[in-house]
Amino acid sequence: MRLLEPLTPDPRAPLARAHPLAKIGAALVLMFALFITIDPLTPTLVFVAEMIAVPLIGIPPRALLRRALPVFIAAIGIGFFNALLSGDIAGGVAIGLRLAGIALAGIVAVASIDPTDLADALVEHLHAPRRFTVGALAAFRLMPLFADEWQTIAMARRARGLDNGRVTAFFSMTRSLFVAAIRRATRLAVAMDGRGFADPGCRTLARPRTIGGRDWSLIAAAIGVALLATATSVAMGSWRFLLAR
């Protein structure tokens, strides 16, 4: 649950204050470039470019690695088993690199975005439904509280002398956490309704924000990285389309 807590980027970093939609757009460009190919060279080049961009978003590399470590382990495992079962080592390495590159692009983009800024951007520029967006934002803000709730439930069980093993107590603690989450969500929904969030009328944004030249430059840089990596792979003769046999 601690992994759900948002990270706070250094505001002095070059990409820390980039528009949330620009970060997501740049990540989607790199993800698409990695998705359509199954060669090992393209994801390697994109992955190197992503690692170079990590210090530019203002998040400590150690904190970012801690968030991405489970995904990297899963990517390595999937690549290893593909290479083991198919006998194609190069193909397994390519799959592992593709998954790691796709995961890192998403993590770098999302970890540096403030949830409130993202909700405002979705409503302002993509005209997302306000009630759904604000509700999702409130739910996301409550996610880190689950870790505190879990610790409270564990201490309560320990005080009552109940079994607190990781496996045997998991289901009972999960049920208690689920009940607490429903109660908290009910109180939050009533509070938001009382403050007029259920009103379908027109609402204004407290912090409107335009997409500027720096944001478009970020998307253009992502397109440039994707095209350069793909062109290099094609020139080396290793590029393979996803659906090609």
Q: How are the elements arranged and paired?
A:
Blueprint: H1 20-35, H2 41-53, H3 61-86, H4 89-111, H5 115-125, H6 130-142, H7 145-159, H8 170-194, H9 213-236
Provide the descriptors you would attach to this structure in a database record.
about 240 residues, single chain
The residue ranges in which pLDDT falls below 50 over 5 or more consecutive positions are: none
State the major sheet.
none
End-to-end C-alpha gap: 42 Å
Strand-pairing-aware structural class: mainly alpha
Helix amount? 55-70%
Mean pLDDT: 83
- Tally of individual helices: 9
What does this entry look like structurally?
With 245 residues, the chain is mainly alpha-helical. The protein contains nine helices and no strands. It has helices at 20-35, 41-53, 61-86, 89-111, 115-125, 130-142, 145-159, 170-194, 213-236. Helix 3 runs antiparallel to helix 4 (89-111) and helix 7 packs across helix 8. The mean pLDDT is 83.
What's this entry about, in short?
The chain has 245 residues and is an all-alpha fold.
